[in-house]
Amino acid sequence: MIKHEKEITLIEVQLSKQNSEKLIVTFDANVVRYFSVMNVRGSSSANGRIHVGHIKSIEISTNPKGKHALVIITKFDAKFSNDEVDDEALDKVKELVAEVQRAMQSTAL
Q1: For a pLDDT cut of 70, what percent of the chain falls above it?
Q2: N or C of the chain: less Cβ packing under 10 Å?
Q3: What domains does the chain contain, in order, with CATH numbers?
Q4: Mean pLDDT, residues 51-64 taken together
Q5: What is the pLDDT of residue 12?
C-alpha cells in the first residue's frame, strides 16, 4: 500500500543580513531549522531545530523602535528564538510563521 503524503513546502529565509550570526531559518512540513555561521548560537537555545508538535506559539513581535523579531515559545515555556528580522525579510518571515501555524493546527501529538 502506498501512502500519499501531503505536498511539502520548503520555506527558507535569512532573518537579518546585519546580524553577525547570518541566521537562516527553514520550515518544511513539520520542522523549523536554524542555520548559523557561528559555532554556538547566542540565543536562548543551542538546538538547531524544533518540531511543530513542541511549539506553543510562533509570532513576529515588533518593539517600540519598530524592530522586528521572530519569537518561538515551546510547550515547555522555553523561548526557542528571539531573533531580529530585517524589514526586507519580513514578508518571507510572515509566510514562514503562517505555514508553521497551519502545521501546528494539523499536528496532534
Answers
A1: 81
A2: N
A3: 10-106 (2.30.29.30)
A4: 93
A5: 94
